[in-house]
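Q: Joint fold for the lines below.
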Amino acid sequence: MPLHIQTGARRTSIAVDARPTLAQLLETAGIHLNLRCGSEGVCGGCRVLLGAGTFRTDGQTLTLPAGSQHEAFACQTHVISTDAEVTIPPASLLEQHGQIVSDFHAPQHIPQAAIASDAPLAAAVDIGTTTVALVLLDPATGHILARASKYNQQIRKADDIASRISFCRTEQEVRVMQDLVIQQTINPLLEEACAAANVKVDRIQRFATAGNTVMEHLFLGLPVESIGRLPFNAVRHIHPACEAGALGLAMAPRGRVEVVPSVAGYIGGDITADIHAAHLLARGGESVLVDVGTNSEIVYALDGKLLACATAAGPAFEGAGLLHGRRAAHGAIEHVRCDAALHFQCDVIGGDKADGICGSGIIDFLAEAFRFGLLNAHGRYDVERLKRAGRYAHSQLGRGHSHACILVPAAESASGHALVVTERDIEQVLKAKAATYAGLKTLLTMQGRSVREIPRFVLAGGFARHINLANAVTLGLLPDLPLDRFEVLGNGSLAGAYLALTDPAAMPAMEQLSHQPEVVELNRTPDFEDNFIDALLVPNLSAEEFPSVPSQP
Amino acid sequence: MARNEELFNAILKGQRKIVEEVVNKAVAAGGNVAEMLNDSMIPAMRTMGDKFSRNEVYVPEMLIAARAMAAGLKIIEPILAQTGHKPLAKVCIGTVKGDLHDIGKNLVAMMLKGAGYEVDDLGVDCDVAKFQAAVDRGAQAVLCSALLTTTMPYMKTVADALKDKGAKVIVGGAPVTQQYASEIGAAGYGADANDAVKVVDKLLGVRA
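A: Joint structure:
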């Protein structure tokens, strides 16, 4: 008697085994769930709906009647009865087509001349911890022939940087990771892009890539263990060019592979690429570049001098650790608007019914909820008002309980369950935004500068491409500057790799600049913690830093 | 001494400036600071801790309250030392070797101080020798924090080295679980900042 699994319109059945968790059981059946917290039962990525059958979940044994839709985490659930029903919401599946930013603003000297049918081609690749983006181009003209992107398949083994480092204890494990990123991720992208451009892969003669220090090491098959511990030393920061055949890339075997150099263990080649693509040095004057992510990197530039730091924001902006959070992909709420009557209007990626909320959506939600007095400066709901508006929910899933606001009622969501934002979710987001803002403030204060004096503020990375800047200011993630001082760079990492292939001066310039930044250890700076605590409020305990954000009555 | 409501509430609300004002005023008036600590300040932090355990307050409010408490403690600590005030017990705390993440550790340290313990804060990147030295200085409990799966294994090194040295090793941090604590032979596990205080209370036989 089997376990029946419903995923969208598909129905499959597999043999029941009570020993592994439901998540492991599904994994062996080839159904990969989002296990980003490493099956700790905290991220909610593997949320499933249990139907008829007997299950053990969160330490309790449940026998459910036919037609049940009991929410549970697959990583914390065992199937006990030999016949059981489970429904997997699309949002819990790993293979979602993500919304991956592969556009960037770079000087594209594109004469759009016809490309000779045998001209050598090149591939520029951004290797992100979560996503990999590729462009196929003619390096002589800069013309882009095709773009392709997908999740970094290393996610299957470990989700975040720290767990990937932990995974790679032996040479063999490093090879597994290298294989996942090259054979399972980059090669399919090379083939996809070549198919779209109707060319053969062996026409690709050059390859350039940028990523964080760990991603670059794993791409090259270098050990990463030392990057995870103080003093966070990498094997090397400048990587000699090598041949594609040695790495097994799907391109001309003698083709040249270049990797953008990194600055430090946690300030990678992606940041070098950002700095170069944003002309932080070339333009002179004073500017700040921030790449908001799980680790937010911050670079301050003043007349050719560079200062950099990294701050651990955690994965909340990627939707992880939030009850109904999810990555930006089909079905995710990416923008939210609200009115005084607490009607929420949600924009959903793909336009269908929503099945979760991603980072840009949660920023909008919190900013709007604060604006309309539903949320106070400490990130707590006006519970009475939620109840009056019929928006109140009490969340009991996972660890403990929490007040929650119903963003999408059950009838309007893809899963048939209400989508909610809990106070615990809000705490996660506040910690993430506080780490980023506090890092920025600390770095600038050390230079005797105030956050509000910065004339040019560059936002790099895919996440910043999608956020509503005004809402990010209201939340206190970004400083309260006139919005025209912000510049959205897009995927600067990909831009750097692109420039390395099209501009002969780019790689030497990036190598040069990778030596320049002075790296600041935020934890060694006493102000950081104070700034962090101040920044935990909406927008900030130091309200004077956010004059444009009206304070609540 | 009766509870000073103004001070008690200022700590709950995390109003650092008001806490400093009230404490300074009391000190200037020659009030009994030990009583103020025991009757108003420690109960405020214990109340916050319990609210935290019940999900009535979250980390942002806890940190703000703990910082206000710390500001008040800073003023009275020299006076307490002069008057021979006895803390509940002495404990030490640090992040393990290789780990620089100290915000969680700092919150636990502030909570312990707020609960009436003398806290020997060893900072970040602590090796066995550092923890051992603190035990030699009289720490009865050793609290180890790690935020990364890459640095967590060092907790076992600490637990092994300090076995039978008379101090209880208590571990905590985002990736740490009760199961892991039991596996490495740690005496206790703190699931969160308030839980850490309760575990110390229990292991040292302190009745809060």
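Q: Anything notable?
A: The first strand of chain A starts at residue 2 and ends at 7. Chain A touches chain B through 33 residues (CB under 8 Å).
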